[in-house]
Amino acid sequence: MKAVCWHGANDVRVETVPDPKILNPRDAMIKITSTAICGSDLHIYDGFIPTMQKGDILGHEFMGEVVEVGSQVKNLKIGDRVVVPFTISCGNCFFCNRDLWSICDNSNPNAWMAEKQMGHSPAGLFGYSHLFGGYAGGQAEYARVPFADVGCLKIPDGLTDEQVLFLTDIFPTGYMAAENCNIKPGDTVAVWGCGPVGQFAIKSAYMLGAERVIAIDRIPERLQMAKEQCKAEVINYEEIDPGEAVKEMTGGRGPDACIDAVGMEAHGTNSDYLYDRVKQAVRLETDRPTALRQVILTCRKGGNVSIPGVYGGFLDKIPMGAAFNKGLTFKMGQTHVHRYLKPLLERIQNGEIDPSFVITHRLKLDEAPHGYEIFKHKKDNCIKVVLKP
């Protein structure tokens, strides 16, 4: 089969690799009909995620048709259309039983590696390094899905791939980011980052009762999408200091909640951004937390900080004194996708949202290297790339 394989920083190739096989009775084999390039994939593309190996298959946003099932998978049959959460979860452990699917105890076969870095291991992830299990990803023609009996969501007739594809990651990620804000009617929410997750965070904040959403970015087409598609008030941080602007827009109080939908590769215009670039270049710092610093300093006293943006290691110059003295509440983490699959599918079916609004580019699988380049460099007004195997 063809698959998108990693060979180093800024080097992905479409290659012919062996077809996956059923390895466990709870596995299913999926013929992929749609897959996508995620902002998290760019962290791998840029070389910031450790334990990648040459030839690793990328991709964690995919869906398709069941073509084979293991002997213990009783709720799926050949021909079912399914979406597959990017987090791999067993469904039986302490954490899965508490609806904390992304920190499953049993799905990362390389848990010892994660424990050394993090103290405990999160769940395994598709196509996201050997630190998270070394699972082959879904930017391919076929994929093996472990724990398919709890991981795959069957899609009813009448919905297109593009309407449901983002249930695999970015729609639940944006929704959980908004849910973590503990939004009350009338609240103002500020979202740093208007990439696909940021767009869904804006939409979700309104779904959950926010009165105002303020969106911060520097890319004109992203700001335009946030304003026109998501009804946010927008700020271009290259034109005005976002922290001061948001405070002014909220009467000096600050927003009730702030969402960092940027993560480890934030850009900025202040001296702290240059500081981060230098330290990151010489490997004295793993992440660039420019957005996170702004979020902490901007959020109102007693407010909520939600972090769906991916962080990979060790951050510097975080204003914890401000966070402590302002009494901020932090919630973050990989998305518990399984928790949101059915509720968000219902929202799609009811016409509350059509997640396909974020798609700007549809490419063949063979064009994936081009897709990575335009997505990374924001060329051709690229916001979201869907690949068709």
From TrEMBL:
<dbReference type="GO" id="GO:0008270">
    <property type="term" value="F:zinc ion binding"/>
</dbReference>
<dbReference type="InterPro" id="IPR013149">
    <property type="entry name" value="ADH-like_C"/>
</dbReference>
<dbReference type="InterPro" id="IPR011032">
    <property type="entry name" value="GroES-like_sf"/>
</dbReference>
<dbReference type="InterPro" id="IPR036291">
    <property type="entry name" value="NAD(P)-bd_dom_sf"/>
</dbReference>
<dbReference type="Pfam" id="PF08240">
    <property type="entry name" value="ADH_N"/>
</dbReference>
<protein>
    <submittedName>
        <fullName>Alcohol dehydrogenase</fullName>
    </submittedName>
</protein>
<dbReference type="InterPro" id="IPR002328">
    <property type="entry name" value="ADH_Zn_CS"/>
</dbReference>
<feature type="domain" description="Alcohol dehydrogenase-like C-terminal">
    <location>
        <begin position="196"/>
        <end position="265"/>
    </location>
</feature>
<dbReference type="Pfam" id="PF00107">
    <property type="entry name" value="ADH_zinc_N"/>
</dbReference>
<comment type="similarity">
    <text>Belongs to the zinc-containing alcohol dehydrogenase family.</text>
</comment>
<dbReference type="InterPro" id="IPR013154">
    <property type="entry name" value="ADH-like_N"/>
</dbReference>
<keyword id="KW-0479">Metal-binding</keyword>
<keyword id="KW-0560">Oxidoreductase</keyword>
<keyword id="KW-0862">Zinc</keyword>
<dbReference type="GO" id="GO:0016491">
    <property type="term" value="F:oxidoreductase activity"/>
</dbReference>
<feature type="domain" description="Alcohol dehydrogenase-like N-terminal">
    <location>
        <begin position="25"/>
        <end position="157"/>
    </location>
</feature>
